[in-house]
TrEMBL record:
InterPro entries: Aminotrans_V_dom, Cysteine_dSase, PyrdxlP-dep_Trfase, PyrdxlP-dep_Trfase_major, PyrdxlP-dep_Trfase_small. This is Cysteine desulfurase family protein. It catalyses: (sulfur carrier)-H + L-cysteine = (sulfur carrier)-SH + L-alanine. Residues 2-368 form the Aminotransferase class V domain.
Amino acid sequence: MIYLDNSATTKIDPLVLEAMLPYLQEEYGNPSSKYYLLAENAKKAVSVAREQVAALIGCHPDEIIFTSGATESNNFIIKGIIDHYSSSSNLIITTKVEHPSVLETCNYLQTKEVKVNYLDVDNYGRINADQLHSLIKINKPVLVSAIWGNNEIGSLNPIKELATVCKQAGVFFHSDATQVIGKLPVNMTDIPGLCFLSLSAHKLCGPKGIGAAIIRKQSDEIYTKITPLLHGGGQENNYRSGTLAVHNIVGFGKAAEIAMKQLTDNQRKLLDLESYLSDILSSTLGDKVYFNHDNSDKIPGILSVQFKGVNNELLLKKLSPYAALSSGSACSSSKPSHVLSAIGMTSEEIRQTIRFSLSPHTLPSDLDFFKSLR
Ligand code: PLP
């Protein structure tokens, strides 16, 4: 079977697994313990992983708070900021195409008297800096949260411009970069207004159950203030107490290191693969296929394709013995996509859409299967 659902999750890289195994076996020390070698080894392994993840996204290792994944990071950052600053402002600005872990967090906060403004997106799922600037001028929020690259259609927001608008207005800016890291260059140091980032390891051939929330320091010493997620022994700069999952952290670090080394090659491979697949679909099905995105400005390897006149659920079931695909996000596959609806697609068009998400490990010959589609 061909696996083409890499935006849902990816297969763990064998080198990542190899790096993790000792920390599930003989290297079982707790990195918060002291004086003996097992603890020191665990502490060192976590510190190396922190540097590997920091190198991938251009932040300082101390700015990384390991979490269980991007869902937790999004919850933590948004709730943590609102909790800490609610006396100054209780408004959040976000977009209509965020991952459910942002949207549902905002929905929850609305039940606690927090106000949320949802920015409309263009036909390709993007917001722009002028639109954000105009809204902020009318009503200053405490936080803006905008997804970097969309998990369903791959569209990219102009994160640097949005961060500049937020910085000038003195507003915190958070972005969910889960689908972008390892596929496009990310350098937080180049984007001074970007205060928070959410990441996940299992989208880049790392293990499930580990991710990170990045909280940028405002100066050498001062962290942006945000209410801790878990109170306890003070791990992760007091933000998320609890014994660290050393094996998962080591796996995340290794996956980040590999992704960093292979970034340029992988980008090229993904672009070649997606153009190969688009050509196959277009030449096999002609005007029965339509691509829902702007090919020049998106995450490489994500294709959102309408199959005109075909019910996507029936097609997915029919293809399931041969190809693993999804209609959109794995998190909300039972509901019609809020992302496709926000870009103006009708419910009929949404019911005809399938997401292909490729991996650098996908082979062109895997994609030849789609030549048999009629
Ligand atoms: N944000 C985006 C954009 C995603 O695509 C996903 C996963 O699908 C998440 C957040 C949630 O990530 P995790 O599975 O690590 O909680």
